C-alpha cells in the first residue's frame, strides 16, 4: 500500500512539473515570436545590425521555448522498461541544446557586427523604432519574472536559464535603444560596436549555460543546502552510532537518490537494525523526497580490545595529518581495516600515508597489518 501511494505522489508531482513547464514554454514561445516579428521589421526598415541581432536573439528565444515545450513533454513521461528511472533528464538535454543554439547565434552576429564596424551605415530612425524597443524591454522584464517564478516552484534549472536569458535580453535591448538614441541625438554611428557588445554578451552567457548543463549531465555535486539537510537529519537519529559515505545522485530534478553507511551496535538483532534503517529511509523520502538506501555497519562497541585499537588508530591518523577522517574500522586476527577520507589538499600522497600509518601503528600496537581503503570524497 505504501508503494502505491509513493508511486501516486510521484505521478502527481511529475504531472504538476510537466504542466508548469509546458505553461512556461507556451507563454515564452508566444511572447518571443511577437518580439521577433516586431524587432525584425523595424531592424530591416532601419538597416540596423544591432536591432537585427536583437531580433534574431528573440528568434532563438522562440526556438528555446519550443525546445522547452518538447523537453518538458518528454521529461514528464513515466518510467518504462528502457528507462526505469524515468525521462526527467531530458529536460536538461533540451536546456543544453538551447544553450548551443544561443552560442551559435552569438558567433554569427559577432561576425556581422565586425563587418558593420568595417563598413558603417546610418540607421533609418523613426518613432515606431523607439516604441517597439521600449515595449520589448517591458515584455522581457515580465517574461523573466514569469520564468523565475515558475522555476522556483518546480526547482527547474532549464526555466532558471530561460529566466536569466530574458534578463540578458533586457540588457541587450536597452543597449540597442541607447545606440539608436545616441545616433539620433549626435549622429555617431555606434550601431556596429553595440552589436559587437551584444554578440559577446550572448556568447558569454551561451558558454556559461553550456558549462552548467554539461556539469548537470555529467553529475554535479549536490548543493551545500541539500547535503546539510541530509546530514542534519541523519545526525538526529539517536539510536544509531554514526554514519558515513553519504553519496547523492539524481535522474532529473524530482528523482533524487542517495546511499549511506549506518553504524549500529553489533549486538542488535537483524530485525531491530532493519526497523531502524527502514524508518530512516521512510523519513528521507517523506521529508526530503530522496530515495535513500542504507548499508549496515555493525560496530562492536562493547569489546574493550576493539575500543582500545580504534582509539589508538585515531590518534595515529591525527598525527599523520589532522585533516584525515577514519571510518569503517574493523579488526580480524592480526589485521586492522579502515577507510580513510582524503581531503582535496592532503599533506601526503596515498602511498606515503599508507607507509607512515603502518610504521606508526607497528610501534603503537605491535605486528598488526594495516589495510587502508582510501576514499577521495568530493562532497566534503
UniProtKB/TrEMBL annotation:
**Keyword set includes Nucleotide-binding:** no
Q: What is the lineage of its organism?
A: Bacteria, Bacillati, Bacillota, Bacilli, Lactobacillales
Chief place where the protein resides: membrane
Coiled-coil stretches noted in the UniProt entry, renumbered to this chain: none
Describe the location of the Cation efflux protein transmembrane domain by residue ranges.
Answer: 27-218
Residue span(s) of domain Cation efflux protein cytoplasmic: 222-298
Mention any Pfam family matching this sequence.
Cation_efflux
Q: Which UniProt keywords apply?
A: Membrane, Transmembrane, Transmembrane helix, Transport
What Gene3D superfamilies is this protein classified in? Answer: Cation efflux protein transmembrane domain, Cation efflux protein, cytoplasmic domain
A molecular function (GO) term: monoatomic cation transmembrane transporter activity
Taxonomically, the superkingdom here is Bacteria
Organism expressing this protein natively: Candidatus Enterococcus testudinis
Q: Where does the chain cross the membrane?
A: 20-42, 93-111, 123-142, 184-204
- Provide the topology term for how it sits in the membrane: Multi-pass membrane protein
Query: According to its record, what are the GO cellular component terms?
Result: membrane
Instruction: Supply the name of the protein.
Output: Uncharacterized protein
Whether Transmembrane helix counts among this entry's keywords is yes
User: Subcellular localization, per the record?
Assistant: Membrane
Amino acid at each position: 500500500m505504501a508503494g502505491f501511494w509513493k508511486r501516486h505522489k510521484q505521478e502527481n508531482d511529475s504531472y504538476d512539473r510537466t504542466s508548469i513547464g509546458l505553461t512556461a514554454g507556451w507563454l515564452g514561445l508566444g511572447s518571443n515570436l511577437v518580439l521577433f516579428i516586431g524587432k525584425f521589421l523595424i531592424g530591416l526598415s532601419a538597416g540596423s545590425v544591432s536591432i537585427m541581432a536583437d531580433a534574431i536573439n528573440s528568434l532563438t528565444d522562440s526556438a528555446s521555448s519550443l525546445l522547452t515545450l518538447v523537453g518538458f513533454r518528454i521529461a514528464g513521461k513515466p518510467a518504462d522498461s528502457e528507462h526505469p528511472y524515468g525521462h526527467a533528464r531530458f529536460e536538461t538535454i533540451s536546456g543544453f541544446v538551447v544553450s548551443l543554439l544561443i552560442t551559435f547565434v552569438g558567433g554569427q552576429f559577432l561576425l556581422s557586427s565586425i563587418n558593420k564596424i568595417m563598413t558603417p551605415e546610418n540607421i533609418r530612425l523613426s518613432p515606431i523604432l523607439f516604441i517597439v524597443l521600449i515595449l520589448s524591454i517591458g515584455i522581457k522584464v515580465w517574461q523573466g519574472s514569469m520564468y523565475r517564478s515558475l522555476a522556483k516552484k518546480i526547482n527547474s534549472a532549464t526555466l532558471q536559464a530561460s529566466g536569466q536569458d530574458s534578463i540578458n535580453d533586457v540588457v541587450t535591448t536597452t543597449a540597442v535603444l541607447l545606440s539608436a538614441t545616441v545616433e539620433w541625438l549626435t549622429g555617431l554611428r555606434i550601431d556596429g560596436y553595440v552589436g559587437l557588445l551584444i554578440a559577446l554578451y550572448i556568447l558569454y552567457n551561451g558558454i556559461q549555460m553550456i558549462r552548467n548543463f554539461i556539469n548537470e549531465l555529467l553529475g554535479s555535486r549536490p548543493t551545500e543546502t541539500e547535503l546539510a539537510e541530509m546530514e542534519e537529519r541523519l545526525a538526529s537519529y539517536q539510536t544509531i552510532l554514526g554514519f558515513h559515505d553519504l553519496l547523492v545522485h539524481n535522474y532529473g530534478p524530482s528523482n533524487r537518490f542517495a546511499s549511506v553507511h549506518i553504524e549500529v551496535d553489533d549486538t542488535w538483532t537483524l530485525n531491530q537494525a532493519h526497523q531502524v534503517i527502514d524508518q530512516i529511509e521512510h523519513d528521507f523520502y517523506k521529508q526530503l523526497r530522496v530515495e535513500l538506501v542504507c548499508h549496515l555497519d555493525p560496530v562492536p562497541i562493547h569489546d574493550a580490545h576493539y575500543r582500545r585499537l580504534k582509539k589508538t588508530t585515531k590518534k595515529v591518523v591525527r598525527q599523520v595529518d589532522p585533516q584525515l577522517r577514519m571510518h569503517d574500522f574493523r579488526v580480524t586476527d592480526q589485521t586492522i581495516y579502515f577507510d580513510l577520507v582524503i581531503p582535496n589538499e592532503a599533506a601526503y600522497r596515498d602511498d606515503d600515508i599508507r607507509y607512515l600509518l603502518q610504521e606508526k601503528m607497528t610501534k603503537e600496537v605491535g605486528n598488526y597489518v594495516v589495510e587502508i581503503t582510501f576514499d577521495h570524497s568530493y562532497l566534503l
